[in-house]
Amino acid sequence: MIGGLYTHLIAAGVALAIGATGAAYVQANRYELQIAQLKLDASGQDLQEARKVLGDMAGFQKGFTDALSNFQAGNSANAKAQQELGTLILDVRGTAAGLRGDFAKLPQRITDAARPALAEYATTCTAVFEAMAAAGGRLAEGGAGIARQAEGHAADARLMQEAWPRTKPAIVVTPSATERLSNAAIANQ
């Protein structure tokens, strides 16, 4: 009978060991499942944060590219307008230099001229003055065009300054996946 008792005790011990091993195995699988779920959640959060940062960077890059192209277009238009104004000024200077020489000789030529020559000279002077007035009008229009372009450039500059972010975006520091796993393991103990 004592031999049977030992057999039952040994069988109970073996059953207890098998049950404890099975329970430990099941519990280990539960913990592994929890850890895998925490890793998945952490990876999903990291992926969302990375997508948000990437979207912010893409928006900033687009704004910067648009501002740069507007700036380059404004510079190009201003350079063309300055070139046209320079050409117009050279034309006016050439005309004025020619008129100075004509006007210097004018009193003597009027005194020496006959009546038909005076009439022709008056007609020529009138034509020259009309041409000067037209050139002055073109010069004024050119200056007004440059002023309009300068105002447009200033408006573009204001727009770029207003579109630029005023404050640095808040950077949210979240725990990394390993920190979250460590915190979860501590909480489960």
Strand content: under 5%
- The overall pLDDT, averaged over residues, is 79
Global Rg: 46 Å
Series of H and E elements: HHH
Through-space gap between termini:
45 Å
Number of helices: 3
Bulk shape:
rod-shaped
Report low-confidence residues grouped into runs of 5 or more: none
**Pairing-aware structural class of the strands and helices?**
mainly alpha
How would a crystallographer describe the biggest sheet?
none
The level of helicity is over 70%
Secondary structure elements and their pairing?
Layout: H1 2-112, H2 115-163, H3 177-188
Helix pairs in contact: 1-2, 1-3
Tags for this entry?
91% helix, 3 helices, single chain, mainly alpha, 189 residues
Question: Summed up, what is this model?
Answer:
The protein has 189 residues and is an all-alpha fold. The chain is built from 3 helices and no strands. Helix content is 91%, strand content 0%.
Description:
This protein is an all-alpha fold. It is 91% helix and 0% strand. It contains 3 helices and no strands. α1 runs antiparallel to α2 (115-163). The longest helix has 111 residues, at 2-112. The two termini are 45 Å apart. The mean pLDDT is 79.
